[in-house]
Fold:
Amino acid sequence: MLNNKWYNVLKFIAQIALPGLGTFYFTLGDLWNFPNVAQVVGTIMAIDTFLGVLLGLSSVQYNKVGGKYAGAINLEWNPNPEAGGPAKVFMLELAEPAVNLENETEVSLKVNNNLQR
Structure:
């Protein structure tokens, strides 16, 4: 699994840089008779496709282990509402200590709805 910085750099390369480079070489190669245009562009696109597959696998793995969530909101029935508390309880469960979030501008939380009786 890649960290966010590397993932974003490689995503830029796969989505912008390599397709742009391939198009650039294809266009100029035809105009200026560059050598082996089909082979060069084919190689660039093959590398781009392979990089896209690796990024896709990394994204699936990231989502599978819950890496995109900073924690969860657990919704449960209060086992003892007679004690004066609400019937429903919302509990925040963070994956890391809250102090680790101080430099974040936004976070995602998963909702675990356990209210089904």
Observations:
- The longest strand covers residues 71-77.
- The chain has a mean pLDDT of 89.
